[in-house]
Amino acid sequence: MPNRQITNINKVKFKPFDNYGKKIPGMSWHKISYSKKNGGFGTYVLKMDAGSKSLPHMHTGYEEFFMLKGELKDPDGKVFKKGDFVSFKPGTKHSSYTKKGCLVLVFMRGINKSIK
Predict the structure, then answer these.
(1) 46, β-bridge pairs
(2) What radius of gyration do the chain's Cα atoms show?
(3) pLDDT, one tens digit for every residue, the chain (116 residues)
(4) CA 46, CA 31: separation in Å to the nearest integer?
(5) Comparing C-alpha atoms, which of 55, 110, 46 is closest to residue 80?
(6) E strands, the chain, where?
């Protein structure tokens, strides 16, 4: 089937995460189908190194992710662990931190906006 794409998550090459126009230290990604050109829809694999933190941001559309490895913590103290599937509704504001690192499969439906 010529329109099928198979991605082996264990063999992908990660590039610095730059979705907000600048590289975020300790964060990298492999885009599977994600593109800003199509309104920020698609899927990517996100790798966060130990001690890294995402920028504070607001979701303009749904963002969902599946925790593949490690743990991720939100400012309210909620910890997402391997096997968790998390859904954020449009308008949600947060940032996430990982103490030991993590690998996340992300499904985007809109471009996040960086907030201060």
Answers:
(1) 29, 104
(2) 14
(3) 679 999 998 999 999 999 888 899 999 999 999 998 888 999 999 999 999 999 999 999 999 999 999 999 999 999 999 999 999 999 999 999 999 999 999 999 998 888 87
(4) 9
(5) 46
(6) 15-16, 27-31, 41-48, 57-58, 63-73, 79-81, 85-88, 93-94, 102-109, 113-114
Tokens of 12: 């992908």
Structure confidence at residue 80 (pLDDT): 98
Residues 29 and 49 sit within 8 Å (Cβ to Cβ)? no
- Say if pTM beats, i.e. exceeds, 0.85: yes
Residue found under tokens 């996430």: 96
Which domains can be identified in the chain, with CATH numbers? 25-114 (2.60.120.10)
Q: Are 10 and 46 in contact (CB under 8 A)?
A: no
